[in-house]
TrEMBL record:
This is Uncharacterized protein. Residues 1-22 are annotated as: Disordered. The chain crosses the membrane at residues 35-56. It comes from the Bacteria.
Amino acid sequence: MRHHRGEMLDTTHSDAAPPQDEPRGCLFALSQPPLMIFLAVIGCLLLTAALHDLLWL
């Protein structure tokens, strides 16, 4: 079965596809694992620095 370019279905304007101009909020950004890992590392560093200042200095 060979398909030529003229016989392929055009799926770029499908009704089932979500709209691309839909705004995404802050909760979508925070649900991304790399961002959460980065924020957790920064939070741990800040917590470590704060505990160091409070307990050992």
